[in-house]
Structure formats: structure tokens, C-alpha cells
Amino acid sequence: MLLNVQEKTLLLIKPDGVARGLDKEIVARVKNVGLKVERQEKFRLTEKSAADLYSPHLGKKFYAGLLKFITSGHLIACVVAGENAIASVRELMGATDPREAAAGTIRGDFKAENMFTSDGTIKNIAHGSDSLESAEREIAIFFGRIK
Ligand code: UDP
Ligand code: MG
Predict the structure, then answer these.
(1) Crossing angle for the helix pair 85-93 and 23-32, nearest 10 degrees?
(2) 105 lines ligand 1 (CB under 6 A)
(3) Residues 125-130: what's their mean pLDDT?
(4) 127 has catalytic annotation
């Protein structure tokens, strides 16, 4: 059972989502489930910040392609707050592979016909922190240490 805890999480609208103009729709979905968007800002990630963000994936076969993709254009970073914000944003996003993401989820509803970059990275529109620890670490990369 989920406890009703107030949390903050990092939601990213990745370069493919920004390029396709999906930011308003995604933010609307977040607000519709009662979560609050406390910060929202456009960024272009440096190589170093991208490596920080995805440091848990260092050494995996998709790591280099992922860094290339996440630095390929602007992204929109949001601090989302509310009850069970971490799990709720993950639920709104759906499965990592858009082909497996359920209808009604962001990745399921907006999956592109060509969802792979030239080196095989999955372009899946959004990112959401996967734990309290990740959320704190990831929010700090974009917004510094916030309360
Ligand atoms: N990714 C990929 N191929 C894979 C696994 C992941 O291209 O086999 C990319 C994809 O963009 C994903 C990101 O790497 O969103 C981070 O992977 P993770 O397993 O953390 O998935 P997420 O938490 O984003 O659902
Ligand atoms: Mg992840």
C-alpha cells in the first residue's frame, strides 16, 4: 500500500517531447492528477550534467547513446510536488519502451512512429525520478538544493 507522503520529483520533457511541442499536454496531465508543478524551466544540458543525471547507467550498453540523445536539444525540467509524486509521475509516463506503455500513459499515447535515435536509444518523451534518493539528486542537478 502506498503511504500518503508529500514528495518532490523531477520530471523531464526530453528533447523529442520538446521538439514535438508536447510540454503543455504533459504538464496538464500532471496537474490533472492533483500534483503541483513548483518549478518549470527550459535547459540545454551540458555533457557533464547529462553524465551526472545518468550516472546510475554508466557502463550500460545504451549509456553513450542516451547522453547523446539527452544533450541533442532543449529539454524542460519540472519539480513536481504532491502526494506520492514519484510513483504518480512514473505511472503517468508508462513503461520505458513506448511499445509496452499502456494507452492513457504519456509514453503510450504519444509514441512516435520512429522512436529510436540513429544509435538505437529509445526516444520516450519524458523522464521521472525513480526513488526519493534519485529525486533529490536529480532535482539538484537542475535547480540546486531546494526544500
Ligand atoms: N534506454 C534505452 N535503451 C534501453 C534502456 C533505456 O535507450 O534498453 C533509455 C531510455 O531513454 C530510458 C533511459 O535510457 O528512458 C533511462 O533508462 P531507465 O531504465 O532508467 O528507464 P526509465 O526510468 O526512463 O523508464
Ligand atoms: Mg530511470
Answers:
(1) 130
(2) no
(3) 98
(4) yes
